[in-house]
């Protein structure tokens, strides 16, 4: 596994998904991440999280690099593109499988909804209704039959067993302080699918460790996800970074910026004549040096 990382300087990153053009919220996140390096010294890395093969497109990836450079951001070293490193994530899955922590789930969304309705019990987590564990105790013979028949499946983490193996865990947010990890609030999360050997949760913790990230900066909508990430770090024997979660940028009506808001993309602002300094200001940052 990956060894301990050097804590002598801050290493952070900006890791967008190329599923659309960058908007002001992305600009804020990127500037926020680079600002941590400027104030503490260290390195700022860029990663493209493109494991969503349906929505991610090469033209969006190219536009991300162009927009960030235009904004005045400078990243260290080569850009890591997740789709080029799928074998890394397979290795992590194999490790978890070897510990007896994964099981195939053949349930469709419709079947999950039906099971929840039947039980009359629908506990919720940060991502919505928790998976009811239908396939966790599936008969081994039935499980193998379904695998052999080519039935689509997702690989889920057996959360109860994972928490039992990992024991009590903590992680630190530089603003909110030390947090007791509560990954069980997510239930049996999906870590991979039959045709995609990873998920956001698995890929992000692996890449952060591989790239030596010491400070993870991201929006506070991902604060709770850090509980699951801390668990995966423990199970995979990965180093533990610090975290800093920032407020989400919103419009005048309090709505989060989204990629569907085409008028607020960096590309559209560039086309309308805005300068990099003006866009930095719109994103809520003191303009970077020209």
Automatic annotation (TrEMBL):
Record domain Glutamyl/glutaminyl-tRNA synthetase class Ib catalytic: where: 10-276
Top-rank taxon: Bacteria
The keyword Nucleotide-binding is assigned to this record: yes
Gene Ontology cellular component terms for the protein in this record: cytosol
GO biological process: glutamyl-tRNA aminoacylation
InterPro entries associated with the record: aa-tRNA-synth_I_CS, Glu/Gln-tRNA-synth, Glu/Gln-tRNA-synth_Ib_cat-dom, GluQ/Sye, Rossmann-like_a/b/a_fold
The protein's Enzyme Commission number: 6.1.1.17
Keywords in alphabetical order: Aminoacyl-tRNA synthetase, ATP-binding, Ligase, Metal-binding, Nucleotide-binding, Protein biosynthesis, Zinc
Enzyme kind, highest EC tier: ligase
Pfam families, per the entry: tRNA-synt_1c
PROSITE patterns with a match to the protein in the record: AA_TRNA_LIGASE_I (PS00178)
Keyword Ligase assigned: yes
Single GO term (MF): glutamate-tRNA ligase activity
Record-stated family: Belongs to the class-I aminoacyl-tRNA synthetase family.
UniProt xrefs under NCBIfam families: PRK05710.1-4
Full protein name: Glutamyl-tRNA synthetase
Species per Swiss-Prot/TrEMBL record: Magnetospirillum gryphiswaldense (strain DSM 6361 / JCM 21280 / NBRC 15271 / MSR-1)
């Amino acid at each position: 596994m990956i060894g301990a990382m050097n804590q002598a300087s801050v290493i952070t990153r900006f890791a967008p998904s190329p599923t659309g053009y960058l908007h002001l919220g992305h600009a804020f996140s990127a500037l926020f991440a680079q600002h941590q390096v400027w104030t503490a010294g260290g390195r700022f890395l860029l990663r493209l999280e493109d494991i969503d093969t349906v929505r991610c497109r090469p033209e969006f990836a190219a536009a991300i690099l162009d927009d960030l450079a235009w904004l005045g951001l400078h990243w260290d070293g080569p850009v890591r593109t997740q789709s080029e490193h799928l074998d890394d994530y397979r290795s992590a899955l194999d490790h978890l499988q070897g510990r007896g922590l994964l099981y195939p789930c053949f349930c469709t969304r419709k079947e999950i909804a039906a099971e929840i309705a039947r039980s009359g019990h629908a506990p919720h987590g940060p991502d919505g209704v928790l998976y009811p564990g239908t396939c966790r105790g599936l008969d081994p013979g039935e499980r193998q039959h379904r695998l052999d028949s080519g039935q689509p499946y997702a690989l889920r983490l057996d959360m109860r067993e994972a928490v039992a193996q990992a024991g009590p865990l903590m992680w630190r947010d530089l603003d909110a302080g030390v947090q007791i990890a509560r990954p069980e609030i997510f239930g049996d999360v999906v870590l991979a699918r039959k045709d995609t050997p990873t998920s956001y949760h698995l890929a992000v913790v692996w890449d952060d460790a591989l790239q030596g990230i010491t400070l993870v900066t991201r929006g506070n909508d991902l604060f709770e996800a850090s509980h699951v990430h801390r668990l995966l770090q423990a199970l995979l024997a990965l180093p533990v970074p610090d975290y800093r979660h920032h407020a989400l940028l919103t419009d005048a009506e309090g709505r989060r910026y989204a990629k569907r808001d085409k008028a607020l993309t960096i590309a559209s602002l560039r086309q309308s004549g805005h300068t990099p300094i003006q866009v930095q200001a719109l994103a809520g940052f003191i303009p970077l040096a020209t």
